[in-house]
TrEMBL record:
One Pfam family matching this protein: AbiEi_4
Keywords for the protein's UniProt record, in alphabetical order: Plasmid
Domain AbiEi antitoxin N-terminal: 160-197
Protein name: AbiEi antitoxin N-terminal domain-containing protein
Source organism per UniProt: Sphingobium amiense
Length: 204
């Protein structure tokens, strides 16, 4: 399905999409090509169908695998999504080899998964942690540990009212930490990339 123009992706994302399709860009090592062959074969057993080598659009399944690889390049990918079954091992191997060769995917590749839920389910990938909003019935979130990075981030957000992930990054708080705080209920998403402190915590 033509859902996303490749022209809107970064050069590194287009590079990875090409590898998922079986392209040989010339600059890729033989080891990297072999790992992507394995991923493509394993994903194909789950129904993955790569686009044509010269196709100008990326399918939802291709964007899902792109986001999975980007997530696997983070320290705690389980915060962002859950990859189960046989597809996890080859995805991790591709992510690590790309990083080793200097190809690091940005967070936009992961954020895009929010619109690919059904396609990701087809590949045994759950994006629920990325989209999860803390139900009202849950217990009050526990405050972060004293003098921790989370406490520093929470104090900053409380002082500002709202803060963007870019503001927090300037403070030394990574997107991964922000995502974890959101999952734990410490932060509430106002809109994409913008957060406020949970009301329970602001009341002290």
């Amino acid at each position: 399905m033509r859902v996303f123009s490749l022209a809107r992706l970064t050069s590194r994302e287009r590079y990875v999409i090409g590898l998922l399709r079986g392209a040989d860009p010339g600059s890729a090592s033989g080891g990297l090509l072999a790992l992507f062959d394995r991923l493509r074969t394993t994903a194909g057993e789950l129904g993955f169908r790569p686009g044509p080598l010269t196709g100008a659009y990326a399918s939802r399944q291709e964007l899902c695998l792109l986001g999975c690889i980007a997530a696997m390049q983070r320290e705690n990918p389980g915060v962002l999504l859950k990859i189960s079954g046989a597809i996890r091992t080859p995805t991790l191997a591709c992510a690590r080899r790309l990083a080793f060769e200097g190809v690091h995917l940005n967070h936009a590749s992961i954020s895009r998964l929010s619109g690919m839920i059904d396609a990701c389910k087809e590949l045994s990938v759950s994006t629920a942690p990325l989209l999860q909003v803390r139900p009202r019935s849950q217990r009050r979130p526990l405050p972060p540990m004293p003098e921790s990075l989370q406490e520093k981030a929470l104090a900053f957000v409380c002082s500002r009212g709202i803060a963007s992930s870019r503001d927090l990054a300037a403070l030394g708080v990574s997107r991964q930490v922000v995502s974890l705080m959101f999952k734990q209920g410490l932060l509430v998403r106002v809109r994409t990339g913008v957060y406020r402190a949970a009301s329970d915590l602001k009341r002290g």
